[in-house]
Amino acid sequence: MISFCHENLRVSDLEASIRFYETQLGLTLRKRLDDEDGPMAWMGYGEEPFFLELTQAGVVRGADHIAFVTDEAEKYHAMHAAAGIIDREIPELGIWFFHDPDGNSIEVMPAAAVEKLQAQN
User: Domain 6-119 - what CATH class?
Assistant: First the structure.
């Protein structure tokens, strides 16, 4: 069986990124590491095996985007709208996008949107 493990994002300020993912998406800090790539943090939800790996780097080269799914879409959409960070939406699916402090694109999908997309051919 193959499943998601982690998504790595290169960030310019590790502490600012940790705070951002904690406050805006509810992730918690699982682990801090220092290796040849630099200081890093693993962020996740509870016991879920997938985690977000943030690595502080002089050259930021983030992923195209990372997607999160939620069954509390109204709560998170309201929070992100109030923070003024939403920059694009797909209303027919209830999906929205915003960026973290380094410009990495984040997609938030309601669970129903994932089910709808999975059912498409």
Answer: alpha beta
